Amino acid sequence: MTTEDTAHDLFHAPPPGDAFCGRTNELAALQQDFADVCAGSPRLVLLEGPGGIGKTALVRRFLDSVHGTCVLHASGEENESALPCGVLAQLVGQSPLPVPETLAGLVRVPQSLHANLPPLAAGFGLLDLLSEVQGKGPVILVVDDAHWADPESLNALTFALRRLRHDRVLAIVALRDPQVPELPDGLRRLLIDTPTRRLALDGLSPGELAALSLRLGSARLPHSASRRLHSHTHGNPLHARALLGQVPPDVLLDVATPLPAPRSYAMLVLANLADCGPATQRLVQAVSVLGLSCRLRTAARLARVAQPLPALERAVKTGLLRETPAGVAPEVAFPHPLVHAAVYQDIGPAQRAALHTRAAELVDDEYTKLRHRVLAATGPDEQLADALATCARREAATGQWAVAGTHLRHASRVATSPRERDRLAVEAVEALLLDGRVQEAAELANGVPEGADPALRGYVRGYVARVQGRTEAAWTLLADAWEQCDRERDPSLAARAAEQLSYAAVMCGRAAVAAQWAERAQRLSTAQGPSRMLRFNHLIALGLSGRAKEGIALAADLPDPMIVPLKSIDLLLARGQLKLWSDDLPGARQDLLGAVANCRTTTVPLRLLSASALAQTLHRLGAWDEALIHAESSASIADDTDQSWLKPVTHGVSAQILAARGHWERASEHLRSALDVPGGAETPVAYAYAVCARGYLADARGEPQEVVDALRPLLRFSEQDGVNEPGVVDWQPLLGDALVQLGEFDEAEAVLGPFEERARARGRHASLAAAARARGNLAAARRDPKRAQAAFARAQDHAAQVPVPFGRARVELDHGSFLRRIGRRSLAIAQLQAAYTTMTALGAGPYRALCLRELNACGRAAPDLPADERERDAADALDGTLTPQELAVARLAAQGLTNRQIATALALSVKTIEYHLGHTYAKLGISSRIGLVRRLGPQSSSPSAG
């Protein structure tokens, strides 16, 4: 028996109920089928997947979610598969009602006598049992591990399932593969037939494994660690659960340390390996040293096996290795990463080091050589550290941050001097952060010793704190690092500290200060030039401090956005962002499309920022479907890579789009993620995106007090230029509008005034349109129609300067509402009709409803959306003609047979007979069997025409 065949046995203990994760779609499918069953339509579900994938856990969770129903549950067992009717006896023994006489023997006599039950009687008995039990409510029939059930039970099950027509029965059959030879052909055909719902379970996703670790009492795994666990276990919940309980947390988090196999699984693998000869053992161990797969020739040379094919044949038969097609040169591979882990970790340290040393001499690839040299190292090695650092810096120059971070980490571990070790560790942290591996970077930064260079230590910890969103701590650490740094002896470290201070200043809303730090960092940069993120941040700081034109000019010489070289993507992205804030939306879209297309191989922050900026641009342009794709994609990446500093922005933008469409649940989910960032108020710019999203959601729901509660906290950031720069977040018109609705006119005036002044100074038409609209509402509320009309006219003029459909439609809606209230209905209708058309095209449901309400108040019905197609009647039209099955049932009933006798004669359930008779009565206009006799007669062979 192979490793995969018996893995289920080793982990057969049921998992804790509270450790269930994922399977949302599968649970929803089962619950939908159960709803159909309750309505009278039987359903059959095939639940398939390898051992340990979670079939039993899914069924258990589903059963926990339904109440007031009868559950008949049985499970096959490998050592009982020869016991006749054993599974059927389990089902019968759970019946809440007396069992049919045909099955009574299953609960009265010893199991060894079950073979005396005739096969057809077993099928009829199960059908009768289901008919009786469902009289008290719907029935869920579960057969778990059906591939180990006895043939007699499976045949009876097949017989019964085929004859369920209108029964309230949900049958769930769980097995590894419907093609297993143990399954009867009839049941196999039934399970793969079209009406059967097939739920093939895959492994849990990395995110679900992270949730699983949390539910098992461990810390939630970061994305990099959960992704590695997923790759190692293929997401198998049982294997993952075993490792989460077995492996120390530091090993789970350290992706550079190999994960083991679960102990029980490893025992099985090693037992299989011990049964092989010495040549096979050496070959399998050699393959494990070379990786998950390798060329057979290389493995044979490493194992010193002259004739590898016989050894390989034995390894394949025991399930330890498999052959893979690779053209001319044969390759071998492990069937599962856990098999590789079990073999590799069983090799003793001395033998493992010797094998890696030899492997480094056999391979040609530079990276692979370095890997084997690292794994063979037993202590500091200056030459190896230099080789790793050189390789890593070459990789970093081409944007390969993941590999660079790993090599720098290894270089730090084998460095000979403490100073070099610390510097390499800091470089590794930088690479890991640029690759989005925040948790790993934090662990490594915390490992920099207290006795290290204080400037270096403060810089790396401040950098990590900044990415984690702990901006105040970041500022303190980085400022201290700047003061501690010898800027003449180490200008590179000083430049990097100044760069991070620039980022922190932007997040704090002090854009002018950020621009100064960015310029200082550029002056200190080495001959290699400033980092790409520094140039981006410099331009962003200029934009947030009112100098967007200056920033755009610094990036004016770029080629066409779609062919901008990788080294200039940062400038292209920054220019696109500044154009977005400056109302050049077509230009922003062009730049940001180029940035997104070319950012796939750059750093995680640049990828996130480009997708988020493009989403905001498309949202303002009215391309909401496309905007939402980019917004939710960037939000997902921010979550996966623990980019706390950007989560309020990415999730906030997603929530704003969804709120305007009235998708309350999804908008609320994003809003929770946007607001659920520790120390959110420490980063006012990002915080503003999050609370603005809350404000827009409340505005779409018509809740002005909630808008005010959300946005009032931003008033305390009046000194932060980034938070108050027009065109960035523009929360002031939203707050002003809500204050007007609540009658807080003076406060609304105080909010709008400074914002309008800044917007006029920058020439921001979209911001001025929104402010003028709010100003018009304020004047109207103060009963000053002349000023209100002038404000709305200004809003119309500004909105016409920028392609912002939603902003323009909001102006038309509020202007039309105002005109209606002062009695100018014809003008009001024109404004409201225009707003209605735009809101309909955008899918802005809540605002479209407002347009309809105002048009109705004007006495004018709006042109509605095209009517949907009418739903067809699900029931067949009754035309007085019976179906062949209805005719057969009616004939037997007319002859005087009872429902149970008819069910036995036609091999159907009693419930199905009742269903057909009910339909027949309705079609023929009768109410009893007497009517059948009159219409059909005892010997009649055709339905009545009357």
TrEMBL record:
Residues 875-940 form the HTH luxR-type domain. Gene3D superfamilies: P-loop containing nucleotide triphosphate hydrolases, Tetratricopeptide repeat domain, Winged helix-like DNA-binding domain superfamily/Winged helix DNA-binding domain. Keywords: ATP-binding, Nucleotide-binding. Coiled coil: none annotated. InterPro entries: AAA_16, P-loop_NTPase, Sig_transdc_resp-reg_C-effctor, TPR-like_helical_dom_sf, Tscrpt_reg_LuxR_C, WH-like_DNA-bd_sf. This is AAA family ATPase. The lineage of its organism: Bacteria, Bacillati, Actinomycetota, Actinomycetes, Kitasatosporales.
